[in-house]
Specification:
The protein is about 35% helix and about 25% strand. The protein is an alpha+beta fold. It has two domains: about 160 residues, 3-Layer(aba) Sandwich (Creatine Amidinohydrolase, Chain A, domain 1); about 230 residues, Creatinase/methionine aminopeptidase superfamily (Creatine Amidinohydrolase), CATH 3.90.230. A hairpin with a 5-residue loop joins strand 4 and strand 5. The model has no long low-confidence stretch (mean pLDDT about 95).
Amino acid sequence: MNPQKETLYQEIDQRIEKTKEEMRKRRYDGLIVYGTNKVNGSLRYLTDYFPDRAGWTSLGPDTTFLFEGAAFVIPAEGDPVLMIDPGLFPGRDIHTKEINVGGLSSEPGSGLSGKNIAGLLMKRSKPARIGIESFDRFTVSLFQEIRNELPTTEVVRSTIVEELRMVKSPWELEMFKAAAAIGDIGSKTIFEMLKNGFNDSELELIRAAENAMRLKDPIYEDSCTGSPSLIGSGSLYGGSILHLPDADKKIREGDWIHWDICQRYNGYPIDTSRTRVLGKASDEQKRAYDVNCRMLEKVLESAKPGTKACDLVILADKVAQESGFELWLNFLGHGLGMDTHERPDLVVEATRLKKDMVIAIEPRILLNNTFLFGIEEMVHITEDGGVSLTQFPNTPLEIL
């Protein structure tokens, strides 16, 4: 086993132990950590497994089943079991002692089911109270099966794992530093293409950046499970200022280009934005972008342990309004973890920042409902404030 994988597996064992400690504090006899093809961070955090596909499979001549998910079922006593939807199977090495696999040609009753979850928990003890992680995406059919199998058991929404995930270990911080450096490669790729006379489409620009980033990732996986890369250039497109890259929308001299590129490194998200003007920027554009940079500077200074996440939004908008602008959509960013958008949310969440959180801070200003100027940094929360892990320069605005 390579050293990085060995370290990861040691991390996972520690995470499971911490999860069990919290289960005991909250009097859980079992915990179901659920994940889907799109939102699987808590599941992956405890197993290194992520559902990598979704679709339909048959469970008999008259029965079809939609598959996309898996659950890591943790009893209060004994080893956890990873249960995978019929139609899914592990496509790579993962770290768990026992797997109940659905598979493509499933035996009746195999894989993830309410009956199997209840059976595992009943083997250990008669569960009085169990929690479900990622409760908002837990399927109705699974929930009903569990209720039928365990009619006297209290079933509650759990946040144990999502809370543990907010603060990063030293190993995770190293993963994020590496991910941010790869994000810088993506931004540099775009910048160099624009500087060297690129005159093709938004799509080709983003494809080049994503390819440069993907080449650095040792894991093959769908790169947009958390978020696809977005771009804005020239003017509104289909009523949207920041949109999916389009093959018919060409980059031209005089355009503003705002890119928001996403990818992954060893399962950890890359999420970073930059803005440039191809040619001369107007005085108003320069002023808006200067304010944008000042918003970022002030937010980073204030992003210290103890600060409420939502207070950073108020601060950013205050800086913008003092110069006659406003924070675009009142949106400033989000937590980063194994899912691209995680807690703490930087819009409404009063959760206080903690040391070693990693968040995306992305202030933007919309000028004349046409030009979107913004920066997105991957940020490490330290005692002295936010430290940008992404290092690609934010200035100069103009590419001349």
